[in-house]
Amino acid sequence: MIGPMAASASAASGGKVVFGELFTPASGWALETIDSYVLSRAGCLESLTYMDYDASIKPALAESWEQVSPTVWEFQLREGVAFHDGTALTPQLVSDALNRVLNVASPPRGFNPEVIESVEPAGEHSVRIVTKGPDVFVPNRLASTNTGILAPEAFANDRINPVGHCTGPFEIVRELPRQGLELKRNENYWGGEVQLAEAEVRYIPDGKVRSVMVETGEIHIARQLPASALAQLERSETVEVKTIEAPRTTTLYLNNRAAPLDNMKVRQAIQSAIDVTGIAEAVYEGSVNPAVGQFSPNTPWAPESAAVIPQDLERARQLLAESGVPASELQFELLAYVERPALADVAAVIQFQLQQLGMKVNIRVSEYGAIEPQLLSGDFDMVLLSRGYLTDVADPIGTLEADYSCDGGYNLAGFCDPEVDAQLKKAGAMVEPEDRNAIYRDIAARLQEEAVNVFLIHETISEAVSKNVENYQVHAYERTALHKDLKINSQ
User: At what angle do helices 433-449 and 418-428 cross, to 10 degrees?
Assistant: First the structure.
């Protein structure tokens, strides 16, 4: 078991940092799942490219790339890179790894066979990627943690084992299932000297527990703090709270596939019954803004007319009457997950507000890994999700393709319109951002108007970091936590 005093290790040999991770890996390290983000934040897993703190795409295992035609990209691999087990990084191993993730049952949202035609070696140090149509986002897609490269031995014995098989600044030396990871620095890291001697990741799904542990010094970094804990942590003499606006929206996803949520009037009634301003003020204590749609109003993708939809119970009742579905027949299960601390409280508020229309809502809260199969199979009514709209591709097209195209890999709502698919295909080939942005605004307006999902709040990210930790920065896209320049000062 991981010892409670681990965070107090001295800096004599480089020191040790303990990171409080909110997600517990639940998919056997399958790279197409959220497990890959855990490996990336642990400083273990790396991809060909990297999404930096400002969402720019930087070289990682590939040192350069070129679009040689509208559908062909070539990536020049960095020479001299080795996995932690000593295996050399080669074009064949990279191609095998990327093809493996393309061929899984549920390919990654941003890198999947709907977009990628083929991946193959293209020389002694290069890989060629061919897309099914013109696509300007291939370097962005390869910055996804889902495209991380593990050594071949990681896939032996019909299971995935990342221990000793990554390329990053930290090597996993021991995995403690459902508890955490123990890591040591990679002495031969291609990116240069790693400052810490060792590190540790602890899985702590409960946000209140993470808050207490960082304040008491049991961990050094706590992700995703609940709003209720911020005031006390901000008064702490040993902890610094770092808060940034996030390209992320908390959303009530509605299953449009089946009655009664296939009825737009029912969805619009739900949308009108929910007080998003009240949720922002009460549940989040004013630390967030009520949503105006998929995208925050200060982004170039929000429609000019984007505005908060006010709670209007009278309109909601009228919409229900127009739907032809009696409120007494509306009964839903609302899912939420514990890793995002506020979602259970948001669920309770929504339950109460929909009950005012005569709807019955049953809430079920669990860890995300326990409900994801249910979501992907479409076997649910409603679910609360915190969804980053730049997470998959560092451009809104990633989320729009995944969540709202007919064959989207994360199309939980079941929304499908060939016209929207055509718009997204057109956007994917556009070099000029403003041309793409006009399409994104049109789609965002439609999603809001038809209440495909109910957008609730635009998020902030608050993390607590011990003041003796140096060079830590909140990554809005959740790619990085433990990195080569992280330091700890015990004095």
Answer: 160
Higher pLDDT, 259 or 328: 259
CA proximity to 352, closest of 343, 344, 360 = 360
The neighbour count for residue 66, using CB atoms within 10 Å, is 10
Distance, in Å, from the CA atom of 226 to the CA atom of 208, rounded to the nearest integer, reads 7
CB atoms within 10 A of CB 57: 20
- 136-166 burial code (b ≥16 CB/10 A, e <16): bbbbbbbbbbbbbbbbeebbeeeebbbbbbb
Q: Where are the alpha helices (DSSP H) in 217-326?
A: 227-234, 264-273, 276-282, 313-323
Would you tell me how many other CB atoms lie within 10 Å of the CB of residue 418?
9
Six-digit token string for 377:
């199979």
**90/83 Cα distance (integer angstroms):** 11
State the Cα–Cα distance between residues 442 and 440, nearest whole angstrom: 5
Return the SS3 of 26: coil
The CA-CA-CA angle for residues 136, 93, 138, to 5°, reads: 5
Per residue in 37-59, pLDDT (tens digit) is 999 999 999 999 999 999 899 99
Whole-angstrom distance, CA of residue 456 vs CA of residue 475: 22
The more confidently predicted of residues 224 and 265 is: 265
Written as six digits, the tokens of 274 are: 């929910």
Q: 64 is written with which tokens?
A: 């350069």
- Residue 62 and residue 75 in contact, taking contact as beta carbons nearer than 8 Å: yes
Tokens 């009278």 belong to residue: 314
Tell me how far apart the alpha carbons of residues 366 and 78 are, in angstroms, rounded to a whole number.
42
Tokens of 322: 């127009």
The 3-state secondary structure of 342-405 reads CHHHHHHHHHHHHHCCCCEEEEEEECHHHHHHHHHCCCCCEEEEEEECCCCCCCHHHHHHHHHC
Contact 402, 110 (CB under 8 A): yes
pTM of the predicted structure, to 2 decimals: 0.84
Amino acid 458 reads H
Tokens encoding 125: 């140090």
Enumerate residues 6+ apart whose C-beta is below 8 A from 431. Answer: 136
Q: H helices within 44-137, ranges in order? A: 91-102
Q: Which two tokens stand for residue 474?
A: 């909140």
pLDDT band at 363 (very low <50, low <70, confident <90, very high): very high
- The tokens for 26 are 């639940």
Q: Are strands 239-254 and 221-222 parallel, antiparallel or unpaired?
A: unpaired
Tally helices (H) and strands (E) across the chain. 13, 19
Strand 221-222 relative to strand 453-466, pairing: antiparallel
Confidence of residue 12 (pLDDT cuts 50, 70, 90): very low
pLDDT value for 7:
44
- Are 283 and 351 within 8 A, CB to CB? no
